[in-house]
Amino acid sequence: MPRRVAIVGLGFVGLPVALSFARRGVIASGLDISQSLVAELTSGHSRLLEQDGDLTITDILGQCLQEGTFTASTDPEQAYRDVEAISISVGLPVSGQGVEFGPLDQAVASLLPHLRKGLTILLRTTVPPGTTARHLVQPIEAAGWKVGHDVFVAYVPERLAEGRAFAETREMPVLVGAPDQASRLRAEELMKVILDAPCHQTDSYEAAELAKLAENGQRDANVALSQEIARLSEALTLSAREVIRLTNTHPRVRLLDPGPGVGGACLPNAYLYMAHAAAEVRVALPTFRAARNTNDQVPELLVDLALSAPRPNGKAKAAVWGLAMKDNSMDDRQSPAMAVVQGLLAKGFSVSACDPLVQGHPFQVSTPAEAAAGASVLYALVRQPGLDPIDPHWLDGLVPGALVVDARGMFDGLKGEISRRGLTLWSL
Ligand SMILES: NC(=O)c1ccc[n+]([C@@H]2O[C@H](COP(=O)([O-])OP(=O)(O)OC[C@H]3O[C@@H](n4cnc5c(N)ncnc54)[C@H](O)[C@@H]3O)[C@@H](O)[C@H]2O)c1
Fold first, then answer.
1. Rounded CA gap, 342 and 99, in Å?
2. What total number of domains does the chain contain?
3. Fewer Cβ neighbours under 10 Å: the N or C end of the chain?
4. Is the shortest distance between the CB of 34 and ligand 1 below 6 Å?
């Protein structure tokens, strides 16, 4: 077991992984470029909502800081000092220009001067196929080190889900991809420090890279199918949720919840990372692309429903419950709920939104009742603590005849209440 491991990138993935090493007796030395994040972590606070049993991530962070098993720094000299392994978990954003490799290239540049014989390096970031070879192995070998002999490199995609990071770091089987056996064995040995589940090995970086994207792309396409079933169900005046529930009674079928769309960085970026590699080898991915388009269009479809809501005095206010990209999440990056808010604002609605786990937006108010007051259309988009279950009194301030758009089945038990109040319900 190594004595010291560096974790590069201390976000949703990196911090729980670093603390998982620290709790298993390895000194985890965290590196991040964000000074404010490092200051926050060093002061013993994490904004993440992770929990392991009764302990919050802030409790765990506090324990590890006190025991000296976790440190956070922006200084590569400090972070890489005496480490036997390095795990990289920075993210690759996608912009109009395509995939931005800058964060990974900077992370690799930061570690090159600290390479030494015997070091194991894992890439955990979700990436287009070809990235480990081009952006990690090539610079290492250009610096004069032989991978598989002097230093060891494997691609080990991260599979955890936000909110279950500690449990899934222990329990989720992982993939280990590397062309040489020495790197695979060392990567597996390192992973086994924090993992109590199988490591599935493969002899190429690219197979593991593409397998990770196929996992995410499959979920994206699955939700897109559910969206089409939902549109057809609506047109046939059927409940989409009931149709999907019935479908899933088949033991070999599992349609996912359609919801307000697919958000976050992971699933939407999977297609874009695949498309990046596919363009180089001139392969079309029409099915994945169509699924992405279907999911991207859902917020617009939900916004259009508001046009049929009453407009007392010509004014229109919309209420939105839930802003995160998924349930029980504080992450609003690429969130469909945020797209709904932007769409409503663009159509001239004033918007009051409530999400107890997301902060910092000018249209936010503190309670669901406050958001609903005076609104002629109410969107229930994310199941968050404090929003679910719904207290019917939160509806008291809606204007008469208001429209309730429920994309998450949050009003399933309140249909009687909706009709007693003379409200109209549109639900998935
Ligand atoms: N969030 C999830 O649930 C999840 C699940 C599976 C896989 N992933 C993948 O894991 C990767 C990380 O995701 P995340 O959600 O933790 O991202 P994040 O944005 O929360 O964290 C990334 C961190 O890396 C830091 N960083 C960027 N460049 C750096 C550099 N050069 N050196 C040091 N630090 C740097 C950033 O400041 C940030 O704190 C992504 O590829 C993502 O697709 C995420």
1. 24
2. 3
3. N
4. yes
pLDDT in tens, 40-80: 999 999 999 999 999 999 999 999 999 999 999 999 999 99
9-49: per-residue pLDDT in tens?
999 999 999 999 999 999 999 999 999 999 999 999 999 99
Among 297, 322, 341, residue at a domain's last position: 297
270 lines ligand 1 (CB under 6 A): no
Q: Which string of b and e fits 12-30 if b means at least 16 CB within 10 Å?
A: bbbbbbbbbbbbeebbbbb
Hey, whose CA ends up nearest to atom 39 of ligand 1?
A: 11
Cβ of residue 50 lying under 6 Å from some atom of ligand 1: no
User: What is the domain range of residue 217?
Assistant: 212-297
How far away, in angstroms, is 269 Cα from ligand 1 center? Answer: 13
| Gap from CA of 88 to ligand 1 centroid (Å) | 9
Which residue do the tokens 């109590």 mark? 196
pLDDT at residue 290, as a whole number = 98
Summarize pLDDT for 380-407 with one digit per residue, the tens.
999 999 999 999 999 999 999 999 999 9
% of the chain residues with pLDDT over 90: 96
